[in-house]
Fold this sequence. Notes:
Number of helices: 5
Number of strands: 0
Number of domains: 1
Helix content: over 70%
Strand content: under 5%
Distance between the termini: 24 Å
Structural class: mainly alpha
Amino acid sequence: MRKRILWGIVLLAITVALAACGGGKYSDVIEVNSQFADAMKEYINAMEKAGNASSVADATNIYAAKIEKIAPRMREIADKYPELKDRSKVPEELKESRKRDDVLGEKMAGAMMKGMMTYRKNPEVRKAQQRLQEAMMLMMKK
């Protein structure tokens, strides 16, 4: 159940980020999407290099801190552009960036699972994962 909730939160975050990659009408979301994508890339890289529980926890805490900072703005964007929540109706100007970001989302899922599955019993990793879950929830709370 916890994994499903986490995956749901991650998918929501990715959806908001994917939807945010446009110009014109959606140009005000490019900056926050870039910040979110950069944070994801850094987390993926750190998780791929992580060789012990401490490095997984550190990477997760750093990512959680970035999400905590970005979350209020992402929530504002989701509220401002509710039409972007429907993945079946992506505006034409966002389709190309969505394809690119889908790849990033897949890498993110793989990196998270690798670290979580390998070190899931470590208290430091569990605490970091809880913090990340709470940070992701900030994107949905009002």
